[in-house]
Design a protein that fits this description.
eight-stranded parallel β-barrel, globular, single chain, TIM Barrel, about 45% helix, about 290 residues, alpha/beta
């Protein structure tokens, strides 16, 4: 299965009291599908501030997102943690909500071995029938889910893809040796075009909240063989790819959304809103 070319890791909208703004979830999903052309949405991922959402909030957000999307895009739910038993329990609950896939981050903080990573993901995948997308983000987890372990995991039938934030060398090895039809998505916005060139399926993106339509155009140019146009658009979008990480995410992208009239509120501690200087810089990206 494919989740399309541009997958948006959706922010969670909050109100002035930093409670989930349930009234804003549907407009945000509609905006991402209709205006930014997202093929799929990740709900309750890192960009959705999953570390500070309660399990009840996550279940309600995921259920509502499935209902609002109504088949117009695929819904991938973030259910991973650094506790295998808890991840299995939560993944089973989420699977009953009708999601298209589960996104499982590599266990963070406890830094398991490669064999530990393999057994962790294998146990979760075997506990559900829902498709599983692995998520390798060493900069956040402190451990790299290496190419050989990913290749080994790709042999498990319902592990269908990975979001990899390492480097093109690792992604190239995965693409070369993984099971047939196993998909590799880049998790780095600025790597969208280079990753396509080595055979990745697409991008799981933060920038697509505000330039998703343009990213789809860039990808279309590349797939049609218009390499120069794709490269020119990549260079034009690159300041946004990098600039929206001028402060800990998702504070900058929430600020950028507000510039477009899409109110998603602030961020929960320990994250904080962007500073005035950071806000001015983000505004300059869209002038």
């Amino acid at each position: 299965m494919s989740f399309g070319r541009v997958v948006t890791a959706m922010v969670t909208p909050f109100d002035d009291q930093l409670q989930v703004n349930w009234d804003q979830v549907e407009p945000l999903i509609n905006y991402l599908i209709e205006e930014q052309h997202s093929d799929s949405l990740v709900i309750c991922g890192t960009t959705g501030e999953s570390p500070t959402l309660s399990e009840d909030e996550k279940l309600r957000l995921i259920e509502l997102s499935v209902r609002v999307a109504a088949g117009r895009c695929k819904i991938i739910a973030g259910t991973g943690s650094n506790d295998t038993v808890h991840t299995i329990d939560f993944s089973r609950k989420v699977a009953q909500l009708g999601v298209d896939a589960l996104l499982l981050v590599a266990p963070y903080y406890n830094r398991p071995s490669q064999e530990g990573l393999y057994q962790h993901f294998k146990a979760i995948a075997e506990a559900v029938t829902t498709p599983v997308v692995l998520y390798n983000v060493p900069g956040r987890t402190g451990v790299n889910l290496d190419a050989d372990t990913t290749i080994r995991l790709s042999q498990i039938p319902n592990i269908v893809a990975t979001k990899d934030c390492s480097n093109t060398d690792q992604m190239t090895r995965i693409l070369t040796h993984a099971a047939p039809n196993f998909l590799v998505y880049s998790g780095d916005d600025s790597n969208t075009l280079p990753s396509l060139a080595i055979g990745c399926e697409g991008i799981i993106s933060v920038a697509s909240h505000v330039i998703g339509k343009e990213m789809q155009t860039m990808i279309k140019y590349y797939l049609e063989g218009n390499i120069q146009q794709a490269a020119e658009l990549h260079r034009k979008l690159h300041p946004v790819f990098t600039g929206i990480f001028c402060a800990p995410s998702p504070a900058p992208i929430k600020y950028a959304l507000a510039l477009k009239g899409i109110e998603t509120g602030g961020v929960r501690l320990p994250l904080v809103r962007v500073t005035e200087q950071e806000g001015q810089f983000i505004q300059s990206l869209f002038v």
